[in-house]
Amino acid sequence: MTPAIALRGAGLAYGSRVLWRGLDLEVRAGEFLAVLGANGTGKSSLLRVLLGLQRLTEGTVEIEGRAPRRGDLVGYVPQRLEVSPLTPLRARDVVRLGVDGHRWGFGRARGAVRARVEDALRAVGAEPYADVPLRLLSGGERQRVRVAQALASDPRILLCDEPLLSLDPGSQATVAGLIDERRRARDTAVVFVTHEIEPILGLADRVLYLAGGRFRIGAPDDVLTSPVLSDLYGTPVEVVRAGDHIAVVGAPPLRAEGAA
Ligand SMILES: Nc1ncnc2c1ncn2[C@@H]1O[C@H](COP(=O)(O)OP(=O)(O)OP(=O)(O)O)[C@@H](O)[C@H]1O
């Protein structure tokens, strides 16, 4: 079966600075891949490659067997929804923007569009505030709306770039749970970039951990260990686990230039 995402011998550098190279990774439909690592290790750049916004400097990338391109195969959830204090947009309007006009048409298919929007709002539990102006919603409510927008086109692949940032722990768990529910219900492949490990620890099938030009891929329990991360960073790093809590202690800041 064609993987949802296939990277082969993939590398990305900005000038002489190598973010990562030799990345061989297949993500299958319905798989949840968490992408972890320090600031500046190239996590967002990886998403840009998958969105077709950034060219690899070596190797190849395919989305369902083809070069990345614009369209409704891929949904995207950014860090946060920036909202102008002047915008009249309501949650419902934002979700409507996520429904592909070409696929659903204008005029003739208005009923279908409306149903799509309602489904997406319901999926994230945003119906109670669907008609409230966005600027009046809390951070967690806005992020649910943003997830609804990304889900509205029923993408085969969902790319999430730190969607939990600046949410409280309860909202983090809710937003991560919504994305997890969708991938289970529709076999959506999920690539989830996050600094918050705990909310996705029980959800991720695999982890891609980036550190200063090097990386490890594997099941969370295999990658998030003191020996593996110490080896990856090249210095002693402690992974402390207590119940559902986990902390990576002693990871050094990013080196000035990359290259493993
Ligand atoms: N177009 C570009 N040209 C040159 N350098 C870039 C470009 N885009 C990103 N960078 C640099 O590449 C590095 C990786 O950026 P990226 O945003 O992918 O990292 P990240 O792992 O997502 O970081 P963070 O966790 O801080 O969001 C950063 O140091 C950034 O400044």
Automatic annotation (TrEMBL):
<keyword id="KW-0813">Transport</keyword>
<dbReference type="InterPro" id="IPR017871">
    <property type="entry name" value="ABC_transporter-like_CS"/>
</dbReference>
<dbReference type="Pfam" id="PF00005">
    <property type="entry name" value="ABC_tran"/>
</dbReference>
<keyword id="KW-0067">ATP-binding</keyword>
<protein>
    <submittedName>
        <fullName>ATP-binding cassette domain-containing protein</fullName>
    </submittedName>
</protein>
<feature type="domain" description="ABC transporter">
    <location>
        <begin position="5"/>
        <end position="237"/>
    </location>
</feature>
<comment type="similarity">
    <text>Belongs to the ABC transporter superfamily.</text>
</comment>
<dbReference type="GO" id="GO:0016887">
    <property type="term" value="F:ATP hydrolysis activity"/>
</dbReference>
<dbReference type="InterPro" id="IPR003439">
    <property type="entry name" value="ABC_transporter-like_ATP-bd"/>
</dbReference>
<dbReference type="InterPro" id="IPR050153">
    <property type="entry name" value="Metal_Ion_Import_ABC"/>
</dbReference>
<dbReference type="InterPro" id="IPR003593">
    <property type="entry name" value="AAA+_ATPase"/>
</dbReference>
<keyword id="KW-0547">Nucleotide-binding</keyword>
<dbReference type="GO" id="GO:0005524">
    <property type="term" value="F:ATP binding"/>
</dbReference>
<dbReference type="InterPro" id="IPR027417">
    <property type="entry name" value="P-loop_NTPase"/>
</dbReference>
